[in-house]
Amino acid sequence: MAPVRGPLGHVELQILVNLAAGPSHGYELMRAIGVSSGGRLKAGPGTLYVAMKRLVDAGLAEELSPPQATGRQRRTYAITSRGHAVMREELARLRDIVDHAAAAGWLEGPRGAIP
After folding, report:
1. pLDDT tens, residue by residue, 89-104
2. Which pLDDT score is estimated for 56?
3. Which residues 6+ apart lie within 8 Å of 2 measured at CB?
4. CA 79 to CA 20: how far, in whole Å?
5. CATH code for 10-112?
6. Backbone phi, psi, residue 44, to 5°
């Protein structure tokens, strides 16, 4: 298991947040990342599966079903207990940054629009 080095990237964090809702396969994750980011983040297959490999290698996610030998090859992934812990730590770190920015007056207007 590879250690987690530094903060998670946006795609990795979005994957973990979406997997926290339940197991999912790649296409569902690509769609969910677009929806949960309000369309600001798009993860194509290359980006998604490289990020998934990093998460699996670090023990933050696991593959539940190997690709089928015939037919559509769909891999289903789930978040691990370690993944839940790292996700919560990362979200808390980001919340601290947003709180600091808000206290400095950088977040104003609807939904924290930056002036």
Report:
1. 999 999 999 889 888 8
2. 96
3. 54, 57, 58, 59
4. 6
5. 1.10.10.10
6. -75, 175
Model confidence pLDDT, tens digit, residues 16-71: 999 999 999 999 999 999 998 888 888 888 999 999 999 999 999 999 976 566 56
Domain residue extents for the chain:
10-112
Strands 61-65 and 24-25: unpaired
Distance of alpha carbon 9 from alpha carbon 37, whole angstroms: 14
Q: Give me the residue label for tokens 């808000």.
A: 102
Q: In whole angstroms, what is the distance from residue 96 CA to residue 47 CA?
A: 27
Cα separation, 78 vs 66, in Å, equals: 13
Hey, what amino acid is at 3?
P
d(CA 70, CA 11): 29
Residue with tokens 């197991």: 23
Task: Report how far apart, in Å, the C-alpha atoms of 90 and of each of 8, 10, 16, 28, 110 are.
Answer: 7, 10, 10, 23, 25
